[in-house]
Amino acid sequence: MQAFLQQILNALQLGSVYALIALGYSMVYGIITLINFAHGDIFMVSTYVAFFVGSALMAYALKLPGLITFLLTMFASMMFTAFLAVVIERFAYRPLRKAPRVSAVITALGVGLFLENFTLATIGPHPRFLPPIIPVQRFTIGGIATSNIQLIIIFVSAIVMFLLDTIVRRTMVGMAMRAISWDKFTVPLMGVPMDRIISITFALGASIAAVGGTLYGFVYTIDPYMGIRIGWWAFISAVVGGIGNIRGAMLGGYLLGLVEIFTPVILPSSTYRDFVAFSMLLLLLVFRPYGLLGRPVTQKV
Amino acid sequence: MRKLALLSGLLIVLSIIAASCAPRPGVIKIGLNVELTGGIPVVGQSCKNAAELFVEEVNKAGGIEVGGRKYTIQLLIEDNEDKAESAAAAALKLHTEGVLLMIGPNASRNAIPASEVAEANKMPMITPWSTNPKTTLDPKTGAPKKYVFRACFIDDFQGAVAAKLAVDLGVKKPAVLFDVASEYNKGIAEFFKKTIEQLGYPVVAYETYTKGDKDFSAQLTKIINSGADGLFLPNYYTEVPLQVQQARKLGFKGIIFGSDSWGNLELIDLCGPDCDGLFFTTHYAPDIATPKAQAFIKAYEAKYGKTPDDVAALTYDAFGLAVTAIKQAGKIDREAVVAALRGITQYEGVTGVMEYRGTGDPIKSAVVLKVDVPGRKFTYYTTAKP
Predict the structure, then answer these.
(1) Are B263 and B240 in contact (CB under 8 A)?
(2) If you average pLDDT over every residue of chain A, what do you get?
(3) In degrees rounded to 5, what are phi and psi of residue A192?
(4) What ipTM was assigned to the predicted interfaces of this complex?
(5) DSSP A299
(6) Which end of chain B is less crowded, N or C, counting CB atoms within 10 A of the terminal residue's CB?
(7) Which whole number is the average pLDDT over B223-244?
(8) Cβ atoms of B106 and B184 closer than 8 Å
């Protein structure tokens, strides 16, 4: 039982990061039906921004409390990544908005490759950790080992997801997003600034990925290619949950975290992990083509 | 008159083409197939540094004399991106560029496919750092490959050394976590398991992961619940810090030890205090070096400003071995070089004395190093003879 709870905690940590990245996929797909394959690499860029900002803040010995440094680092990473995503949308996706959808997907793949190789060329391939902005404290509660970092990851992710859910459901911007996602031909005619709403969606999605990226950098090493695999897993999370659905993306993220942790526990080797994840995806798509929480889209003719 | 002019013009053009086509006199091309990007970039960099140092030393001294003629070495460097397919492609490219022999790749996951290319194209290859037996063995016949050599010991030996180390350190219930997708990690884990079980200690947990994984908490939780008191991590320095930190976070208190793939100071930078006092088996220790090794260490430190790691030392030895063979071959010919390599029974390199007994695998001692995080260095602990 203790081991089981320990694994659940492990899965929560991983699932939180997947969920945060899956949200960005889901939001962008929801609003302009584009699978933004560059999203995993935007996440990668966010961890590097956090790395440099965090290192700079630590190096200048401002003697800020750990929590303030952490929030500043995360905020800087969110701002930069949001800006990057808006620029990418403006120059890579917007000109193709009326082109066949496959062109935009290929462009997204290209943007991802660009980000990877640009990072590789400028920063280099060496793996790094974020500096110890918040010193790690390890402790056990009832026989379950955890650390302050792990708890921060889980709680910060939960808060951010709650905030995002509120923004999408309760604010004017959120309403505009949902409206455009519902009908992107009529809604702009009613005075909703479509381009601006799309930019805001990209910025929001990317800054949430940056929260995930900053948290990820505290516990795992970062390298230029890290976005590929984690991007795929977040993409599956979004599809499993029902792509375009915010709560579905969160659910999918935590489910994939569970799959990632429990595959090596139940099956003899972790090598089965991708196999299990993709089989799950296939089975799910056969029985629920729109994902767990997704709804079928009615195509207007 | 016009015909004559045309003819002489043609002759001039032809002679220029002929001159540029003729082999540049006195140059031996040696290929370097190396992991400059990808999972273990520091290994690639060390290998490249040592190779360039060696070539510079040889060329400054006027080159090497082969069959009464002086030759300088030209180094052709190919990045194999730490990928099996790129390593094979790089080997093929070096072959078509006409290298006399190829040094590298370093990781076994790259060296094994590259060795197949070398064997098929009859191109001599010396890997500095690949310890997996399959690098020099033909998988079909089980016989040694004809064109492939190495400068390091093999995993059978290293796995056994690690098992004996574990027993010496008082481990009674060993556990292993290794990358099942990588030949090196898998091979060494298997030999460790075999030896330590022969010594009478059952492996209580034998867990795997796949290259690129960053979260090992599921496997480590299983290992901790198995009651293991020792954890063997025969994995690369980029992954070991994550594994050690996650193991300690989950409450693992036993001894953690590893293999030569730890031997890079980046391990200390990434891992921090969690790795202090851990042990690993490797090829050489800078603090007990012979005069020959001291000279190499001094030259390397002067040129690059840091102590050479095991890959650098082994690369230097691989080049030393290659040059010795080329000199003995007496001509610039791949078959002659291979025959000369086969003929070498003993070579004293910077990593110690290497004895060859008719195969491409040298017999040499291993050392155990201890990680000293505050000192940011690896200190000598003990030597294990074959």
Answers:
(1) no
(2) 91
(3) -85, 120
(4) 0.87
(5) P
(6) N
(7) 94
(8) no
